[in-house]
Amino acid sequence: MIFWLRFALRSVLRRRRRTLVTFISIALGIAMLIVLGAIMVGVNDTMVQNAVALHNGNLLVESPPLPNRQAVAEIARWEQKPLPEVENLLPRLTFATVLQHDHHTSPVQLFLVDPRREAERSPVSAKLTAGKWLKGSEGFILGTKLARDLHINVGESLQLITAQGQQQLTVSGIFRTGVQLLDQGVGYLPLSAAADFDPALSLQLKTALFTRPGTDLARLADTLQQGATAGIRITPWQKQLPEVEQLLELNRFSMQIMILLVIAILAFGVTNSLLISVMDRYRYYGILKALGARPGEVAITVLGEAVIICFSAGLLGTLLGVLISLIWSGIGLDISHYTSYNPLFSINSVIHPRLEPVMVLLPQSLALLGGVAASIWPALVAARRTISSSMRDL
Amino acid sequence: MSQPFIRLEGVSRWFGTGQARVKALTDISLTLAAGSQTALIGPSGSGKTTLLNLIGALDHPTQGEIYLDSARISHFSEGQAAAFRRQRIGFIFQDDSLFPELRLAENIELPLVILGYRAGERRYRVDSMLKALGLEKRRDSYSTDLSGGEKQRAAVARAVIHRPQLLLADEPTANLDADSAATVLQIMQQLAEQDGLTVLVSTHDERVFKRFEERIVLNDGRLDRS
Hints:
The structure holds two protein chains of two kinds.
Chain A: H1 2-14, H2 16-54, E1 59-62, E2 66-67, H3 68-80, E3 86-90, E4 92-101, E5 104-113, H4 115-121, E6 128-131, E7 141-143, H5 144-150, E8 157-162, E9 165-170, E10 173-175, H6 180-185, E11 186-190, E12 202-211, H7 217-226, E13 233-236, H8 237-240, H9 242-280, H10 282-290, H11 295-331, E14 333-334, H12 336-339, E15 350-351, H13 357-384, H14 387-392
Parallel strand pairs in A: 5-11, 7-10
Antiparallel strand pairs in A: 1-12, 1-13, 2-12, 3-12, 4-5, 4-8, 4-12, 6-10, 7-11, 8-9, 14-15
Helix pairs in contact in A: 1-11, 2-9, 2-11, 2-13, 9-13, 11-13
Chain B: E1 4-15, E2 22-33, E3 37-41, H1 48-55, E4 63-68, E5 71-72, H2 78-88, E6 89-92, H3 104-115, H4 119-133, H5 148-160, E7 166-170, H6 178-195, E8 198-203, H7 206-209, E9 214-219, E10 222-225
Parallel strand pairs in B: 3-8, 3-9, 6-7, 7-8
Antiparallel strand pairs in B: 1-2, 1-4, 4-5, 9-10
Helix pairs in contact in B: 3-4, 3-5, 5-6
């Protein structure tokens, strides 16, 4: 066996030009697939970061509507919980209401937030187009489209209308995220403003948890759910935003299809190259068999060539792909030109290609398998051809 | 005459079918004794290579029977023929038949590798053979670096290294100058005599067939004993 593999290696090295062309094709193909895979993972990461930042974090702690004081107490309970896997906790209370300015009214979902922590983590504070972000217990922020609907500007006051009565708010800032849902239907108040509302006002807890990278969200959600107050529900972002999750899966599926297509093309290249090489050497295979070599031994020399070329080219392609991905990851890739109207890139449209073990190992493994599969036909041609016809052809 | 080693009975070999059918050999019957050295003579296209292929179990006759040391090889399966060849037959082909991928020593040891000999035994036999043929210094050379004479000497070594019973040579000196051809033939005959091999050499070169007492003449696929 070793002798035949050495024979295959020598054949590969002897036909340098043919080997080099096949080798470079495979190496570049694999490098390209690894870089594209890293870009795909980077795109998915950016989409998830944007989605969770804009919405409810990696995990959402949600309650049914609770009386004002009870909701504030529940927020405090979550603040005191030890949560080692959580990087940031954004306490949020929310309720649906109607805003009125002059003769203009608009329904809105108001969020009571911690101004400092929200500014650190939520992208809204960085998306102000006018005025200032919330400070201490002061301020009211709303989206550009909502402000336009209400015909209101920074510094002007409006009425907040609830079942319990009315309350006056002064607009301190206007934001634009590019996400219609936020720009048209959401407003922000400091969390401490809850004390100013009627105790009978129902507030819903919607605390956002931002976890450390690599956290198993499903497991953490289960753990937290077990220790939670009755009625509290903990949901990972995948369940809150199934459309984003589907998009990520679609990206992965598309990438896998692309990997298979490229590998299939490379495999055809390998078949072509080996077949020509086998036809060039009919006489030598005839001599080999005349000396008593078994068909299997002849086939091993051809299969061995494919394995040697595909494995070594795959290794080089992987190194090249990993290197390019790492360099590109450091630099980042700004795709804002293509995503300026896409809400999933509204906050950050710079992607950083990221290497995932599967996306690194898959192209090389498939290239090796594809190469071996591609060499089966040439190997059979070499092994099955009769000696007399092999010798007669030349 | 000693015991017959090769026996052909009414052997014919045709290629193609219908009107395109070519009769390469027609009704060949002959016997060669064990240890004999015979020249197979005939012009190009007379069927010499086809006959060698049949005797060497590289091909099957269309009609007739071939016996080699009482084994009926004309009905061998591919597997049986391969096993028979690797143990009992040595081949020398026309022109360059050394594998360019392999060094000279590796080319010579090839039949031993195929037969599953251990590395130590292979090395011993190859070293002895290289010494006998004066090719020790060329041990690690590739065939592209060898002269025509050296290549054919190596081909002779490869054909006998596993000590077969039958040596078949198809125009072994066709592209060699007179001196190289004489050397190759001398080596081939010496080695064959040493091991008591039966030898059959095809040629249309007078210098070659004059060296053989036994001669078979083929003309247009038919046999003529001279």
